[in-house]
């Protein structure tokens, strides 16, 4: 992938050199620097990030941003690969295509590199706790990680379901009892469950039948003997505990541990997948959640802007159950308790 980017950039640069058009080269360089500034609007942070990434001094970074010195092809490739910046944006061309990326993870037996990646996510969220403009939004047809991470048996069920559907290469079926989660992974989940509540504002829009879908899955795996009666009861206990927690969040309109704002909505229309975005001064990113536990994402600013609009429009077909009249909350949660109780 990196070699391909190097070749494409060299071809691009050579085409401009052959034209000997200084204005065109400057236009390309302007576009690249503008793309960097879109990623990190605060100049001081952009400089620091480039220093850390390229291992060069502050003065060298400033000379590149002032265009006294141009970025080398190797530096451009390293920046674009690390920050997931598309070649179209680097060259300032408009192909009409938006690049999305996906990182595959083995959540059952994560490698050291994957553990490091998960740790970095937690550290990145922790850096946002004092940023008042940070906003997360999730549109969900299944429970999001923000809540799953706090309930061990329920979290284990989602891992079990992922292994059954995608994570075992189809070689053999693994029952719920044989899903073993390491202490390190459990600690990462606990850390994530804690740090995610420090974000200034979180929005969740649930499919009206989310708990019904989950109930059907649990009953199916119990019917084919991959989940025992005892294990099913453990999962149900976690589901009741989660509903109790969600009810507290809805009643207060915030995470009770941190008082950070939470808006909960229930969609009246079917939600076909989980979508989310992260909006901060430093970074804007949107996700489409695929294959249960993977994420397809992009930093493209136009796509993120459209994504935010599309997701907010979904609120037109939803009702808010947080920080509103208690009857809406009571009606919703009583219905979900009955669904879980019938499992």
Structural summary, described in words:
This protein is of the alpha+beta class and 343 residues long. The chain has 2 domains: 2-94, no CATH class; 102-341, no CATH class. Helices cover 54% and strands 13% of the residues. It has an 8-stranded mixed sheet with strand order 1-7-6-5-2-3-4-8, covered by helices on one side. β6 and β7 form a beta hairpin. α7 (112-126) packs parallel to α10. The chain starts with a helix and ends with a helix.
Number of helices: 14
Low-confidence runs (pLDDT<50, min 5 residues)? 14-20
How many structural domains in the coordinates? 2
Rg from alpha-carbon coordinates: 23 Å
Helical content class: 40-55%
Mean of pLDDT: 83
Termini separation: 47 Å
């Amino acid at each position: 992938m990196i070699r391909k980017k190097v070749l494409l950039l060299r071809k691009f640069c050579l085409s401009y050199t052959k034209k000997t058009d200084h204005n065109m080269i400057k236009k390309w360089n302007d576009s690249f620097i503008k793309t960097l500034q879109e990623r990190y609007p605060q100049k001081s942070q952009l400089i620091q990030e480039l220093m850390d990434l390229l291992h060069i001094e502050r003065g060298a970074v400033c000379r590149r941003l002032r265009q006294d010195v141009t970025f080398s092809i190797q530096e451009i490739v390293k920046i674009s690969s690390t920050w997931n910046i598309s070649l179209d944006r680097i060259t300032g061309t408009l192909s009409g295509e938006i690049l999305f990326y996906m990182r595959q993870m083995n959540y059952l037996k994560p490698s050291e590199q994957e553990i490091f990646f998960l740790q970095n996510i937690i550290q990145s969220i922790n850096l946002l706790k004092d940023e008042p403009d940070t906003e997360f939004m999730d549109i969900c047809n299944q429970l999001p990680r923000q809540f799953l991470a706090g309930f061990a048996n329920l979290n284990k069920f989602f891992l079990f379901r992922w292994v059954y559907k995608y994570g075992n290469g189809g070689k053999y079926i693994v029952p719920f009892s044989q899903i073993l989660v390491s202490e390190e992974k459990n600690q990462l989940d606990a850390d994530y469950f804690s740090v995610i509540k420090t974000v200034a504002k979180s929005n969740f829009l649930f499919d009206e039948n989310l708990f019904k879908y989950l109930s059907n899955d649990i009953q199916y795996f119990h019917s084919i003997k991959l989940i025992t009666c005892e294990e099913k009861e453990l999962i149900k206990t976690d589901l009741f505990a989660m509903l109790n927690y969600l009810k507290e969040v809805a009643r207060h309109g915030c995470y009770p541990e941190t008082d950070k704002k939470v808006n909960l909505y229930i969609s009246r229309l079917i939600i076909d997948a989980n979508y989310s975005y992260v909006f901060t001064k430093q970074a804007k990113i949107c996700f489409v959640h695929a294959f249960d536990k993977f994420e397809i994402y992009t930093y493209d600013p136009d796509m993120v802007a459209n994504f935010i609009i599309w997701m907010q429009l979904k609120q037109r077909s939803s009702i808010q159950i947080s920080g509103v009249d208690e009857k809406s909350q009571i009606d919703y949660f009583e219905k979900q308790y009955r669904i879980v109780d019938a499992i």
